[in-house]
């Protein structure tokens, strides 16, 4: 069970968190092999947190610590989105926080066109773009800096949203809504809170991790102009841990 002891993949001792963080009270193996600490307050304002996100993700990729890239449970979200889209393919899909483009490849193989976006560029992007000429493109940019409006039939966010600063949840969801076509689908995969309220955690690099209950995720996304379509619990290899994949539809004409 989360929070009741170290997982088989967790380090022997939780890594100490900075002393200046006053509100840590619980450690939790929310991420494979890394134990993160519970926090009640975010250590940075939103502007400062941008640099934290970039640095911590860059370092994880550079050091080969991007365990999510090879995690089987991570690859369920694009399939769940494609099931909800139905049809033979051909949708324009925006993959937010695309990483090494693993989901982009699955979406391309499913017949869709993909724009992958990430604050950390990957060498895989060029290979994928060559393999799927004219159907894949990648942009090294932050979600909130993405240009465009009403361009995509679907947006996938597999593991990106739950690392954002809580103060950015509203602008982030509003931007997704603007980027979607009327009736477009939004699939978001977050850490699932097994019981009670979802907590906010931070790793040793101060990157935040937010877990959600079904109700918390649904209430938050609904409040930004979406209607729930389905939620799926995707168990992870570590017992008791799961992702929560929410599928939402943009509510037409409901500008928030
Ligand atoms: C946990 S990883 C998941 C990567 C990928 N979706 C996958 O399934 O392998 C989260 C990704 O989101 C990216 N990211 C985080 N915040 C972002 C932001 N605000 N804008 C763009 N990318 C972001 C990170 O660099 C990282 O590649």
Commentary on this structure:
By secondary structure, the chain is α/β, with parallel strands linked by helices. The chain has a single domain (27-250), classed as Rossmann fold. The protein has helices at 46-62, 76-85, 102-109, 124-131, 169-179, 214-222; strands spanning 27-31, 34-38, 92-96, 113-118, 136-140, 152-158, 180-192, 200-202, 208-212, 226-235, 242-250. Strands 1, 2, 3, 4, 5, 6, 7, 8, 9, 10 and 11 form an eleven-stranded mixed beta sheet that branches. Strand 4 (113-118), helix 4 and strand 5 form a beta-alpha-beta unit. Helix 2 (76-85) runs parallel beside helix 3 (102-109). The longest helix has 17 residues, at 46-62. Residues 1-26 have low confidence and may be disordered. The structure holds S-adenosylmethionine. The site of S-adenosylmethionine has 20 residues, from helix 1, helix 3 and strand 4. Pfam families: Methyltransf_23. Keywords: Methyltransferase, Transferase. One of its GO terms (molecular function) is methyltransferase activity. It comes from Streptomyces albireticuli.
Question: Keywords for this structure?
Answer:
single chain; Rossmann fold; binds S-adenosylmethionine; 6 helices; Methyltransferase type 12; 256 residues; methyltransferase
- CATH architecture descriptor text: 3-Layer(aba) Sandwich
In DSSP terms, counting alpha (H) and pi (I) runs of 4 or more, how many helices?
Answer: 6
Which of globular, elongated, flat, extended, rod-shaped describes the shape? globular
What's the CATH topology label?
Rossmann fold
Structural class estimated from helices and strands: alpha/beta
CATH class: Alpha Beta
Query: How many domains comprise the coordinates?
Result: 1
- Kindly report the average pLDDT value: 86
GO molecular function: methyltransferase activity
Protein name: Methyltransferase type 12
Region (Disordered): 1-37
Organism: Streptomyces albireticuli
């Amino acid at each position: 069970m989360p929070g009741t002891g170290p997982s088989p993949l967790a380090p022997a001792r939780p890594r100490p968190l900075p002393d200046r963080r006053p509100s840590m009270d619980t450690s939790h193996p929310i991420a494979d092999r890394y134990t993160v600490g519970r926090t009640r307050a975010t250590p940075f304002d939103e502007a400062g947190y941008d640099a934290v996100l970039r640095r911590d993700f860059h370092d994880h990729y550079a050091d080969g610590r991007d365990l999510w890239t090879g995690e089987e449970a991570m690859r369920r979200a694009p399939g769940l989105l494609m099931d909800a889209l139905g049809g033979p393919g051909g949708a324009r899909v925006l993959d937010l926080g695309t990483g090494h483009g693993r989901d982009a490849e699955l979406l391309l193989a499913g017949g869709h066109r993909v724009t992958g976006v990430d604050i950390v560029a990957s060498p895989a992007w060029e290979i994928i773009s060559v393999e799927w000429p004219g159907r894949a493109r990648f942009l090294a940019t932050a979600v909130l800096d993405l240009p465009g409006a009403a361009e995509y039939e679907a947006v996938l966010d597999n593991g990106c949203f739950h690392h954002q600063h809580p103060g950015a949840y509203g602008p982030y969801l509003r931007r997704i809504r603007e980027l979607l076509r009327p009736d477009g689908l939004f699939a978001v995969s977050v850490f699932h809170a097994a019981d009670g309220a979802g907590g906010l955690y931070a790793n040793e690099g101060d990157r935040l991790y937010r877990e959600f209950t079904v109700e918390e995720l649904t209430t938050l996304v609904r409040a930004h102009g979406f209607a729930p379509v389905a939620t799926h619990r995707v168990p992870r290899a570590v017992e008791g841990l799961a992702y929560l994949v929410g599928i939402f539809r943009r509510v037409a004409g409901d500008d928030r």
